[in-house]
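Section 5: illustrative case.
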C-alpha cells in the first residue's frame, strides 16, 4: 500500500494507491490520519510506503 500526503493550496491531500481518501487543513492532521490507518490495517503480509510532496517554493 502506498500512502501520499500532498500539499495543495490551503489543503493537505491524503492518497492511498493514487486515490484521494481525505483532505485536511494542516499537515499534522494528514499525517495523524495515515498513522491511524496504518495502525488499523497493520498486516505483515503487505508492504507500506509513505511519500510527502510539498508545493514548489519560489
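Designed sequence:
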Amino acid at each position: 500500500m502506498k500512502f501520499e500526503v500532498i500539499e495543495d493550496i490551503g489543503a493537505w491531500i491524503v492518497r492511498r494507491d493514487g486515490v484521494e481518501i481525505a483532505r485536511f487543513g494542516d499537515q499534522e492532521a494528514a499525517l495523524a490520519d495515515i498513522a491511524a490507518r496504518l495502525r488499523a490495517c497493520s498486516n505483515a503480509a503487505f508492504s507500506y510506503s509513505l511519500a510527502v510532496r510539498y508545493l514548489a517554493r519560489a
